[in-house]
Amino acid sequence: MFELQSYLRVILSICGGLLTLLGSVGIFVSLTVQRRVERLQDILEEFMDLSYQSEINLTGKMFKLIEKYQMHYLLPEGPSRIIMFYVNITIVIVILSWSGVLLCGYSPPLQWQGLLFILPVLTGLGILLFYRFLLKNAINPVANALLGPLIPPPTHLRSVSYLSRYVNVSVKSILKHARLRLVVKSTESGVTVLLKEELSFDDYFYFLNLQNEANHTLFTGFGEIKMVFGHEPITGKPVPAARNVSVPLGFIAPEANLPGPGDNFPDDAGFEARFLIFPWAEKHPIEYVFRMHGRQSNIVMADEPEISVNYMITYRIRQNRLEIIEDQTKLPCFRELAPVFSLDNRRRYWSDGEFCRPESVKICEQPIYIS
């Protein structure tokens, strides 16, 4: 027979060895994470450098950088599971060993002095569980806030608000690479207003006003644009960004008497649209002015839009509501609708011709799609 004290010393030695190996695993993970953070930050810096070259169409290169960022961001699921299984089984064995050593030396009744033996075990258990939490978040940074400020998810690279808030990049430069286009298409289901983006950038509030040459408002829409691409349906691969995205903003009311399918606009039919973008981290919106004309039964852009920062409007976003602090513009319906501006990932518009009335606002239910 072995002596009990010798047996307990062997158990404690095994616990010490397991904890040492667990620390070695932590060092291995930390080195891996350090290398990955350096690589991801290099890609992020390259992405930011491209954003300032706004006069050149670099949407293809930026799209490839986002995909490259995702490749380094995500780790294979198999190795992550093996490492977490090793961490879990090691912690369980250590806890059982500590508990067994205490039980071997326990003799009833339990007195308050026994807390002096139990508290260190509970403290060690808490530290081990926290250590497991750190390793788990370091191995797989998806959907956790530990490494988010250092290595944001790939979807954040298309978020205008995130880039403006944490990277301090020019929103105007970023949006130029989105290549925003506005189209009014006449279909059998109605006259649809579409916002097209060559490279998907989202996470902002918008306000759109479309007028004809007589300064009569044909369409007014506002809301928040957030895109969720999910996973590719066939391969199951995650899609961090997309190209050639179409965002339905709503329908123009029949009272506008626009040509339907098969009809044509007059050759001299002209329109103007003002599109305001309100990112989270800014105080003045980005303004697009679209000069448009009728082409067959559609309304398309006549030339490139004018892009500027509208210093006449000052705003802030608090508790998912857009608050207008100062407005010196004469944009139709803007002041009337400002009290109902909310960021809830919905696109709202008028469809019955009763403009500037919040109670007549409708929600555009058409999903965002890739065209």
Radius of gyration: 29 Å
CA-CA gap between termini: 78 Å
Question: If you average the pLDDT, what whole number results?
Answer: 82
Q: What is the strand content?
A: 25-35%
What overall geometry do the principal axes of the alpha carbons give? elongated
What is the helix tally? 7
Low-confidence stretches: none
How are the elements arranged and paired?
Blueprint: H1 4-51, H2 59-73, H3 77-104, H4 115-139, H5 160-167, H6 171-178, E1 181-187, E2 190-199, E3 204-212, E4 217-225, E5 243-252, E6 270-278, E7 286-295, E8 298-301, E9 306-309, E10 313-318, E11 321-327, H7 334-337, E12 347-350, E13 361-363, E14 369-370
Antiparallel strand pairs: 1-2, 2-5, 3-4, 3-6, 4-12, 5-14, 6-7, 7-8, 7-9, 10-11, 12-13
Helix pairs in contact: 1-2, 1-3, 3-4
Descriptive notes:
The structure is a single chain. This protein is of the alpha+beta class and 371 residues long. It contains seven helices and 14 strands. It has helices at 4-51, 59-73, 77-104, 115-139, 160-167, 171-178, 334-337; strands at residues 181-187, 190-199, 204-212, 217-225, 243-252, 270-278, 286-295, 298-301, 306-309, 313-318, 321-327, 347-350, 361-363, 369-370. The strands form three sheets. Strands 3, 4, 6, 7, 8, 9, 12 and 13 form an eight-stranded antiparallel β-sheet that branches. Strands 1-2-5-14 form a four-stranded antiparallel β-sheet. A hairpin with a 2-residue loop joins strand 1 and strand 2 (190-199). The termini are far apart.
